Automatic annotation (TrEMBL):
CoA-binding domain sequence ranges: 11-107
Signal peptide residues on this chain, from the entry's feature table: none
Coiled coil: none
Native species: Salipiger marinus
Domain of life: Bacteria
Descriptive protein name: CoA-binding domain-containing protein
One Pfam entry name: CoA_binding_2
Amino acid sequence: MTDDALLTEILKRSRVVAVVGASLNPVRPSHYVARFLVQQGYRVIPVNPGHAGMMLFGEEVRARLADVDAPVDMVDIFRRSDAVPEIVEEALEHLPHLRTIWMQLGVVHDGAAALARARGVDVVMNRCPKIEFPRLLGDAGL
């Protein structure tokens, strides 16, 4: 279980978030959560091979995490739990500034979480930053 102090620290320290599974469709959670993060001042790098090369929130959509050249602090995963290990391995290999793996509501993978934690990366599972941000930080923002 991730405690509120750690969630607050993660939300305050993170500046660049790669959203894996980002959608161009505004009714999809991966779209409106990413939009919320942008509205809170985060730089959001969308990652989705089906939308690669398109623009979303002022950023080019990347096909894979390996294509991201920005100093990503956090990876927010909008994929099924069985896809998580490959995503975490790619993030650990290609994102040297990575400090947090965040798995969205319904997304849990203990093995991938253990791998990330063994590399010093914080892990949040089965939570949503769009819910946790206002709950923990209110309107204070960043």
